[in-house]
Write a structure and sequence with these properties.
The chain starts with 8 loop residues before the first helix and ends with a helix. The longest helix is centred in the last third of the chain and has 28 residues, at 847-874. The protein has a 4-stranded antiparallel sheet. Strands 10-11-9-12 form a 4-stranded mixed sheet, covered by helices on one side. Strands 29-28-31-30 form a 4-stranded mixed sheet, sandwiched between helices. By secondary structure, the protein is α/β, with parallel strands linked by helices. It binds one RNA strand through strand 8, strand 12, helix 7, strand 13 and helix 10.
RNA sequence: GGGAGUUUAGCUCAGCUGGUUUAGAGCAUCUGCCUUACAAGCAGAGGGUCGGGGGUUCGAAUCCCUCAACUCCCACCA
């Protein structure tokens, strides 16, 4: 078999993915095994894979694949989110490009277009995930708006309504004038914006005096219904109790009220009150029974309530009004001002606070068990710091605005009766029954009822995800939900901790009395190597599929894993993909080496091979243990690094070099067998990180029956580890390194053998002498009592070694090196002695620590003595 | 305004409950090698007063205080 000396991932990745799918290795059904479940954070149905998804899904896949190999019944449920507002915006834009306006369509027509769009673009992202190697159970793919999930959502809505937890009412909400819908608090992002502070004159009625009011939004004067002063403000002490002022330009007379809410320090200490367009003003309006004048149309233009600036956009109006105020002499001054303005998370336009009729969900009660679960670690957050963030939000939770003035989504199952009032029911039939009952009119027809026009917030379906994917809302007693729920790990970004994580926990306790998952692993944000967020505008976001094409899925996965640690942002650098690809190549070539060996089964196992096998057995066991510990504490990057260095440094650079037979000589059967065994175990341990190459090699290294797969291969259980053996081997490594250094310093090629002399003591790893002879390419190892003039010496721990030189060595250089070493050792010894001569240390520190210091002291002294001897010999 | 986090080698980060050296890794750099698995490689080397200052301790990168810089979250005084 001729194997390329470069690993070509593209040639094997698709092949194995198909193999896995065909054989349903990722498919899970309940059985007697313990389950391990992850539900995917559903990406937007029409979205494209970006680097955040790559990170997030690589992590999930690593966790799932490892669980599967540990013999658990692993189930990773994939799916997509209908992403109400985002998808509707895309469909509206697409229609607009075809000259179709949404307002010209009926709801049914629009939804037809939307579903068409979904069928065409939906699920691309799930196909992309396969390229990454994601081992999802695709048979279970769900959509937040498919029939099952929708039924569940409606059932929950009705249930919460009946429990009195969902109510309808007029409230001040965040209004998105572009998407024409209300938003929840969480969908608003505040950004610092450069604005102006306008000082306006409000003339006092029946007087020449005026009050100066500072505002950032002069256009809202159209809706002013009062001016408010602080009662303690001495500047306004002489303003009469029942004073009234004229709204500039508008000429409306409004009262001057007094409330301590007003900050004396800010602006002029006088506040204009616009109850329809500011949350705080709204509260003042409630308190003082002020009139509420809504001056905006839904799209942010001025309506005809006041009769001025009608139809003008709010920002245009601001400019024009500034000019008009100026001309009317009502503008005192304008200052530059930086303030925080809320923007719609989805459409990016400035939010307009708006008074409107919406559906809300009371959160106070439902949040209680959810708060407790996290604080008491029933659900563990990794990293823990997010517990604080979570607690703070939960303890100050506000009611959730769940209605959206959109069409793409689950329509609110409330039906209005012709003569007022409404009923809530999961189906129109049920609604009709209730309506007849409520109205006392048995002849009421379905056509008499009018269903609420609004749909539900997308998160009102995704908060049920861990339950609804197992149909646990509609059929709470089904086998699947009982088996898979609670799920194990959730991997997601901290940016949706409130949107999604917190609400899922609430739903979990409300509908299953159990948490939805046991652990939440929060990833960081993927940034570029300069630390900037990835964005389309900057063009700094690589195309994940392009990366996979170039470096292989395994390579990109390794790149993601190398730079991630829970909760910390990661600086992604394409160089990491290169490193990942190179690692794959390294594995590939190690395999080429081993697979190319001829075997002679009659040949006895050489001593150095026997010792190497013994050593690597322990090395492998220790790494496996370390990796387990890393996984247990979600240090996934460290888990990979452990395997990376085990394979590259210990297995390739040491083990394979030791057992490698002479050119064109066969290897003995036993060593080959044990080496294949190691290789196989290494592949199994690394499989969660690099699923494709490990499967390829796992099959190539041994005869495998049909339908066998590394995906289901049980990972080795780590055994007893001989720590002393491993430590003594590092002494050997140091000796070899020193010999290599001497070769390099004296330009002695590796193929030229050397003699080695040593003054043997307990720190000479003589049990590995056969290895030393081979790796050092030594012709002999001789025990002596001292070195000679022509020898170049070195010391490992306390043992002195000498390499006889044919020609004279650079004594000055040698002496300088030995002296530097001596200086370091003396300094070190001093620091040890400082402790040991300190009575408080000797008496105060634990015995083990003190003993360690004594050991350091004697080692150091021995080494110093050896160094002095060698320096003496140099003279 | 409130809170959280970060600061260790040129870069990215480990360093977990204070004691394995006078601080580690990977990448990058430098030197020598196309040695028969791998130049996507091998062998070796250099590089840090652990953000500044103070304190606790026999002992501090690690604990406490303080200052500084950066990042994020929450709140939203017009």
């Amino acid at each position: 078999m001729q194997l390329s000396d470069k690993y070509q991932p593209q040639e094997i990745e698709d092949k194995w993915y198909e193999y896995w799918i065909e054989n349903k290795f990722f498919h899970s059904t309940p059985d007697s095994r313990q389950p391990y479940t992850i539900v995917i954070p559903p990406p937007n149905v029409t979205g494209m894979l970006h680097m955040g998804h790559m990170l997030n899904n690589t992590l999930q896949d690593v966790l799932v694949r490892r669980a599967r190999q540990k013999g658990l019944n692993a189930c990773w449920v994939p799916g997509t989110d209908h992403a109400s507002i985002a998808t509707e915006a895309k469909v509206v834009a697409k229609l607009a490009s075809e000259g179709i306006q949404k307002k010209d369509l009926t709801r049914e027509e629009f939804l037809r277009h939307a579903w068409e769009w979904k069928e065409k673009h939906g699920g691309i992202i799930l196909k992309q995930l396969r390229k990454l190697g994601a081992s999802c159970d695709w048979d279970r793919t769900c959509f937040t708006m498919d029939d099952t999930r929708t039924e569940g959502v409606l059932k929950v809505f009705c249930d919460l309504y009946e429990k009195g937890k969902i109510y309808r009412g007029v409230r001040m909400v965040h209004w998105d004038p572009k998407a024409l819908t209300a938003l929840s608090d969480e969908e608003v992002v505040y950004k610092e914006s450069q604005g102006k502070l306008y000082y306006l004159r409000y003339m006092l009625e029946g007087s020449d005096r005026y009050l100066v009011v500072a505002t950032t939004r002069p256009e809202t004067i159209l809706g002013d219904t009062a001016v408010c002063l602080n009662p303690k403000d001495p500047r306004y002490a002489d303003i009469p109790e029942n004073a009234r002022v004229m709204v500039p330009l508008v000429g409306r007379s409004i009262p001057v009220i007094r409330d301590e809410y007003v900050d004396i320090e800010f602006g002029t200490g006088a506040l204009k009150v616009t109850p329809a367009h500011d949350v705080n003003d709204y509260m003042l309006g409630e308190k003082y029974g002020l009139e509420t004048i809504d001056i905006f149309n839904d799209n942010g233009t001025i309506n005809d309530k006041v009769g001025l600036y009608v139809g003008m956009d709010r920002f245009e109006c601001r400019r024009v009004i500034e000019n008009d105020l100026q001309n009317a002499g009502l503008l005192e001054k304008v200052e530059a001002y930086t303030n925080n303005v809320g923007y719609s998370e989805r459409t990016g336009v400035a939010i307009e606070p708006k008074l409107s009729m919406q559906w809300f969900m009371s959160m106070k009660e439902i949040s209680k068990p959810a708060t407790k679960a996290v604080l008491e670690d029933v659900i563990k957050f990794v990293p823990e710091k997010y517990k604080n963030t979570y607690r703070h939000w939960m303890e100050n939770i506000k009611d959730w605005c769940i209605s959206r003035q959109l069409w793409w989504g689950q329509r609110i199952p409330a039906y209005y009766l012709p003569k007022g009032g409404y009923v809530v029911a999961p189906t129109s039939e049920e609604a009709l029954r209730l309506a007849r009952e409520k109205s006392g009119n048995p002849n009421l027809a379905l056509s008499d009822l009018r269903q609420d026009e609004d749909v539900l917030d997308t998160w009102f379906s995704s908060w049920l995800w861990p339950i609804s994917v197992f149909d646990g809302i509609r059929n709470p007693d089904n086998e699947e939900i009982k088996y898979y729920y609670p799920t194990n790990d959730l991997v997601t970004g901290p940016d949706i901790i409130f949107f999604w994580v917190a609400r899922m926990i609430m739903a979990g306790y409300e509908y299953r009395q159990l948490p939805p998952f046991r652990n939440v692993y929060f990833t960081g944000i993927v940034r570029d190597k300069l630390g900037r967020k990835m964005s389309k505008q900057l063009g700094n976001s690589p195309d994940p599929l392009e990366l996979i094409k170039q470096y292989g899925a395994d390579g990109v996965r390794v790149a993601m894993m190398l730079c991630t640690s829970a909760g910390n942002d990661l600086m992604f650098d394409e160089a990491l993909c290169e490193q990942g690809r190179n690692f794959g190549n390294k594995i590939w070539n190690a395999f080429r080496l081993v697979s190319g060996w001829q075997v002679d089964k009659t040949k006895p196992q050489p001593e150095e091979c026997r010792k190497a096998v013994e050593w690597f057995t322990h090395k492998l066991n220790r790494a496996a243990l370390e990796m387990n510990a890393n996984f247990d504490s979600y240090r996934l990057s460290d888990a990979l690094k452990t395997m990376y260095s085990l394979f590259w440094d210990d297995f390739s650079a040491w083990y394979l070099e030791i057992i490698k037979p002479q050119y064109q000589c066969p290897i003995d059967g036993r060593t080959l067998e044990e080496t294949k065994n190691f290789f196989e175990k290494l592949m199994e341990l690394m499989h969660p990180f690099m699923p494709f190459i490990t499967e390829e090699i796992w099959h190539a290294i041994r005869e495998r029956g049909e339908k066998q797969t590394i995906v289901l291969a049980r990972q080795m259980e780590a055994e007893q580890i001989d720590v002393t053996l491993l430590e003594r081997f590092t002494l050997l490594e140091e000796v070899v390194t020193n010999i290599r250094n001497i070769r390099k310093q004296n330009n002695i090629p590796q193929r030229e053998s050397l003699r080695l002399k040593l003054i043997s003591d307990e720190n000479y790893p003589e049990e590995f002498e056969s290895i030393l002879l081979k790796i050092g390419n030594l012709s002999s190892i001789e025990r002596v009592s001292q070195g000679e003039t022509l020898d170049q010496g070195f010391i490992v721990k306390t043992t002195q070694y000498f390499v006889p030189q044919s020609q004279s060595v650079d004594k000055e250089k040698l002496r300088a090196e030995l002296e530097a070493d001596l200086k370091y050792q003396e300094g070190f010894l001093r620091s040890v002695m400082a402790k040991l001569t300190n009575e408080r240390f000797v008496n105060g520190a634990p015995k083990a620590v003190v003993d360690k210091e004594y050991a350091k002291k004697s080692d150091s002294e021995a080494k110093i003595a050896a160094l002095r001897e060698q320096l003496e010999a140099l003279k």
